[in-house]
Amino acid sequence: MMATMDVHHIGCLSEEDSWFLFRQRAFTTGVEEESHIAIGKTIVKKCGGVPLAIKALGSLMRFKSHESEWRNNSYSYGWQMDLFPLKTKMIFKELVWRSFLQDVEINSKGDVTCKMHDLMHDLAVSIMKHETCIPEYGKVMEIPKTLRHLSFDIPSIWANLDNKRKLKFPGDGSLRSLICHKDKLTSYEVDVSSSLLKQRNLRALHDQS
What we know:
Layout: H1 15-26, H2 34-46, H3 51-61, H4 67-74, H5 89-97, E1 101-106, E2 112-116, H6 118-128, E3 132-133, E4 149-154, E5 164-166, E6 177-182, E7 189-191, E8 204-207
Helix pairs in contact: 1-2, 1-3, 2-4
């Protein structure tokens, strides 16, 4: 025999339960500093009752002993979603299911918008910052040897410099994804050199030309 089962909608945790869960993860040694408690409650409030966010942030704070480190995580909002430009439908659905992404909406044109909790995004960035790089125009950046994902823009000002730019990539073939954006009004030629041919592990290549 077959029968339908009732759907149980899981809501967010209460403020009390959220704090209890956070304490379990953040204060494993049993030592709870007054300053850490105050900041911790601020972090928990921003998690909005999402268990995954609370557990992740609690686990992260477990290894931070200084008050300044706790405050930095409490007030960190400077990251951009553009740091992770590659999304597949499968990964997107998985992230939604696990509460990494919320408030998913689809407009009449089929464009999908969503939100990622600030603290959850900060956690993702802290994990990926040594593997992901987005160079900023006018700034010199040291490309880490552990680089796996590279995304960069070709501004229109390059047209005033010369018509050809040479790009070099990690020599050990560690690059997994490469994304190149450009101004629609810019005409350019990029010499990727032989270093790109060594990227045997490259899985995603996007050249917006």
